[in-house]
Amino acid sequence: MKPLLVLTAAALLGGAPAFAQSTTVAPLVATTKVDTSTFIKMVPSANEFEIQSSKLAEQQATDADVKAFAKQMIADHTKAGEDFKTALSLGQTTSATAPSGPALQPKEQKMLDELKGATGGQFQAKYIEMQTNAHKEAVALFSAYAKSGDEPAMKEFAKKTLPTLKMHERHVKELAVAHQG
Prior knowledge:
The protein has helices at about 1-15, 35-60, 65-90, 105-115, 120-150, 150-180, and strands spanning about 20, 30-35. By secondary structure, it is mainly α. The protein is elongated.
């Protein structure tokens, strides 16, 4: 389990040291810690990827259920972005400022560019795959921060947003099963 944890943490953060293993023996999400600056850096980019990729899916997906999922992603992640900004403004940590660079981190920009290059059924399969992976990562990130975050407003935001992310993760898994080809 520990090698999986290290790989998961490395995948989530591109190898960044902000994910630290805890000494507690508990479920996977309880054994990781995300620092506030990492959480604040990752959330806007991941959220923006959800919105931009889902806008593409609304236009390019071939099946109505995938388009409906995309529409829900846009609505829910737009609200999450607003909630994030509110939590950020309520934060007590002076270093808790949102990134001022591009809306998407390189990883998310690369995925979006890859999605833009896909068409038809290939686009839809790629969108479902990316949404599956993105929500798996988001659930891990938000679970870890909800349990171990040190910024109260951000920790509350993570706790409040987590059930929606878990619902998205279940929904996209259902789409993956329905559209496996």
